[in-house]
């Protein structure tokens, strides 16, 4: 099976034998088959994704879609969202009309699977526009939907919608630039607007058109201005809006980008890092030839189509590298593969242009392959796939899955060996064109393998989150019958735990933050505190609503309220009067471990004094170390030693005003595998008032 690349001056690259059966089938049927197969496979994979976990993004998009369906306005927890990327919530809003979060979630995944699968169409049309022939154009379309980035189908994000839109915008730009017409210019502007409404990062797509215009007109600014007057006129509208209204009003939720700092050293570092990792994501072997193909399209184009393609794709690469390096150098130090997803399908057309020209600059191609080989040997991938470094990269998730199966060292070695073999194949292609068929097959194989690895990791993670963060009934608060419930987020509780409850339960109205609990997102920062008599007060008002209180790292016991349900480290309380705190323990985890330091407070049931006894039951399991806990309170100052495999019960006198607080700490904490500092295990303290 072979593709004839031996005639570099023909208008199209043909499939004379081996793959000639593709030409016998109408291309539209093959393309429809690619889209349909991708949709079915990706939807099937998405349905195995148990619950949202990419927070706060998934919560934000789902909440806005729900509010558009129910109220006709973009709201999050009943407050204006000021969120400019509204296309995804607008399209998903009808799914929330059924008032069933599970159904809306699955319908959104189906929409994502269809949208990302449709990306095959603009890639096919773009390849055909470049004269690459039906066969290679279909291969390019298949590679576009084999990309590991289709992993994002499973998530309630805007990226799946942006993927086909930005590729469609690039195709419209090439058409408008190669054969100037109002129709194609308007098409580009419309697609740009839709793409920017999906992902704000693509608001800079006009720069792509500018780069393409300069490439087509060979740097003549006057000619470029004259040929595309309509486009330039339309481009002035958002610039004027930005100037007149100001960045904060235009960008809304994303207005913090104006405060980013330019750090040249860090930016250069991240451009280099992103470039290296993108080579892996692109399948490695095509990259040397693709870079030569892009360079020739820019420097020595054979047609306006080639010049336009070279200009717009170089412009896209420029803005994406600028955005991601600036973002990473300002507090998000990780590889942002999801930002680059539209760049990866362009590698094959670049490579095909290299083949179409007869594989020029062979020595340079070989040199690039050797440099890539040296980089793969010198820089292992393991440091990039640890902890949160991999969360925005399906490829690195796949790498982590491989390293988990083989061990970090063995996994890195396997990847380095594969990269070396692919570098050798890239050199071979420069010498013998027929090896390109093998390269295409291996690129598709690598894409499928990375997709499989990332999906495997994701399903495992989503299953664990579903099990650990949610009860069996995800809508347990809704099904309790309570309405207008307030979620109280307490210190130490992971943000994702709150977002899971908010996503699945429509009866949660708002989130309040107790004590030093950190904010879970940018939408609301209401604090709640305990009054001297135990009332819960927020913004000067006493809470009387049903309460869902996080008990991951604290314990709260209430008076004048009944606990009606428990689920996923939250207690659901139904008021029978004005809820008041009876007991608060800060630093007692849900698995009974006490933190290395914390405190507990007891409130008087009535009157101005709290009197009685407090019973503490402390213990340590086997294979631990002797731990001394210091206890300090009014009238109490003790050091208590707890031995491994033993238990101790303490009864402390309580005598104070409206409340009484005991503080505990250890100077030699232990650490759990998840990083939590701990002292000893403890049951929930029991306060017995004096009669």
Topology overview:
Elements: E1 2-4, E2 14-17, H1 20-24, H2 27-47, H3 57-71, E3 75-76, E4 79-80, H4 87-92, H5 101-117, H6 120-129, H7 133-146, H8 159-178, H9 182-198, H10 205-216, H11 221-227, H12 229-245, H13 247-251, H14 264-281, H15 287-299, H16 304-328, H17 347-356, H18 362-378, H19 394-406, H20 408-431, H21 435-469, E5 485-489, H22 495-504, E6 508-514, E7 527-530, E8 536-538, E9 541-542, E10 547-550, E11 554-567, E12 570-588, E13 593-603, E14 610-620, E15 627-633, E16 636-642, E17 646-656, E18 659-665, E19 670-671, E20 677-682, E21 686-689
Parallel strand pairs: 5-6, 5-10, 6-7
Antiparallel strand pairs: 1-2, 3-4, 7-8, 8-9, 10-12, 11-12, 12-13, 13-18, 13-20, 14-17, 14-20, 14-21, 15-16, 15-18, 19-20
Helix pairs in contact: 2-5, 2-7, 3-22, 5-8, 6-7, 6-8, 7-21, 8-9, 8-10, 8-16, 9-12, 10-16, 14-16, 15-16, 15-17, 15-18, 18-20, 19-20, 19-21
What are the main properties of this structure?
48% helix; 691 residues; two-stranded antiparallel sheet; 22 helices; 17-stranded mixed sheet
Describe the structure.
The protein is α+β, with helices and mostly antiparallel strands. The chain is built from 22 helices and 21 strands. Strand 11 and strand 12 form a beta hairpin. The termini are far apart.
| Helix and strand composition category | alpha+beta
So what's the overall shape?
elongated
Q: Could you tell me the number of beta strands?
A: 21
Distance between the termini: 92 Å
Strand content: 15-25%
Explain briefly what this protein structure is.
This protein has 691 residues and is α+β, with helices and mostly antiparallel strands. Helices cover 48% and strands 20% of the residues.
């Amino acid at each position: 099976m072979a593709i004839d690349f031996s005639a570099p001056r023909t208008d199209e690259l043909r499939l004379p034998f081996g793959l000639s059966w593709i030409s016998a089938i109408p291309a539209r049927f093959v393309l429809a088959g690619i889209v349909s197969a991708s949709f079915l496979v990706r939807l099937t994979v998405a349905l195995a994704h148990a619950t949202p976990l990419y927070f706060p993004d998934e919560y934000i998009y789902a909440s806005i879609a729900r509010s558009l369906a129910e109220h006709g306005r973009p709201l999050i927890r009943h407050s204006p969202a000021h969120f400019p990327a509204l296309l995804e919530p607008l399209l998903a809003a009808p799914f929330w009309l059924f008032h069933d979060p599970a159904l809306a979630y699955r319908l959104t995944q189906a929409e994502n699977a269809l949208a990302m699968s449709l990306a095959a169409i603009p890639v096919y049309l773009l390849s055909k526009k470049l004269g690459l022939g039906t066969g290679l154009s279909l291969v390019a379309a298949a590679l576009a939907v084999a990309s590991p980035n289709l992993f994002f189908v499973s998530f309630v994000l805007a990226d799946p919608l942006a993927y086909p839109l930005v590729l469609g915008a690039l195709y419209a730009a090439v058409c408008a630039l190669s054969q100037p017409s109002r129709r194609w210019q308007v098409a580009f502007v419309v697609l740009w607007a839709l793409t920017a409404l999906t992902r704000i990062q693509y608001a800079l797509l006009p720069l792509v058109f500018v780069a393409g215009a300069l490439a087509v007109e060979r740097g003549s600014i006057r000619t470029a201005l004259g040929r595309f007057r309509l486009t330039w006129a339309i481009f002035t509208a958002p610039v004027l809006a930005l100037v007149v209204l100001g960045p904060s009003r235009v960008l809304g939720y994303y207005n913090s980008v104006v405060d980013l700092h330019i750090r040249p050293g860090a930016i250069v570092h991240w451009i280099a890092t992103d470039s290296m990792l993108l080579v892996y994501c692109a399948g490695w072997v095509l990259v040397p030839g693709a870079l030569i193909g892009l360079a020739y399209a820019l420097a020595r184009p054979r047609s306006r189509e080639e010049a336009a393609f070279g200009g717009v794709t170089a412009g896209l690469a420029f803005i994406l590298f600028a955005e991601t390096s600036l973002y990473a150098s300002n507090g998000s130090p990780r590889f942002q593969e999801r930002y680059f997803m539209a760049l990866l399908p362009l590698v094959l057309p670049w490579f095909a242009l290299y083949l179409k020209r007869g594989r020029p600059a062979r020595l340079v191609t070989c040199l690039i392959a050797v440099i890539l080989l040296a980089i793969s040997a010198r820089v292992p991938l393991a440091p990039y796939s640890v902890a949160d470094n991999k969360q925005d990269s399906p490829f690195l998730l796949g790498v982590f899955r491989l390293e988990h199966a083989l061990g970090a060292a063995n996994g890195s070695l396997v990847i380095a060996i594969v990269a070396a073999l692919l570098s050798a194949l890239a050199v071979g292609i420069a010498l013998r064109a027929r090896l390109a068929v093998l390269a295409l097959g291996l690129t598709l194989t690598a894409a499928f393998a990375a997709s499989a690895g990332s999906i495997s990791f994701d399903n495992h993670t989503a299953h664990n989150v579903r099990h650990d963060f949610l009860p069996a009934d995800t809508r347990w608060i809704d099904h309790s019958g309570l309405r207008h419930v307030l979620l109280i987020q307490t210190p130490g509780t992971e943000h994702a735990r709150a977002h899971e409850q908010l996503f699945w339960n429509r009866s949660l109205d708002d989130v309040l933050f107790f004590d030093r609990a950190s904010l879970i997102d940018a939408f609301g920062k209401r604090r709640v505190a305990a009054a001297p008599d135990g009332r819960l007060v927020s913004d000067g008002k006493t809470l009387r609503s049903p309460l869902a209180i996080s008990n991951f790292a604290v314990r709260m016991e209430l008076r004048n309220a009944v606990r009606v349900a428990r689920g996923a480290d939250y207690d659901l309380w139904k008021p029978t009067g004005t809820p008041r705190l009876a007991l608060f323990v800060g630093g007692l985890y849900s698995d009974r471990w006490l933190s290395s330091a914390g405190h507990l407070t007891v409130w008087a049931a009535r009157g101005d004094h709290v009197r009685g006894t407090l019973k503490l039951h402390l213990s340590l399991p086997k294979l631990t170390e002797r731990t001394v806990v210091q206890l300090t309170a009014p009238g109490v100052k003790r050091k208590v030693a707890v031995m491994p495999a033993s238990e101790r019960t303490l009864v402390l006198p309580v005598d104070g005003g409206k409340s009484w607080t005991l503080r505990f700490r250890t100077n030699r904490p232990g650490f759990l595998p998840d990083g939590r500092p701990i002292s000893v295990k403890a049951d929930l303290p029991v306060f017995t008032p004096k009669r």
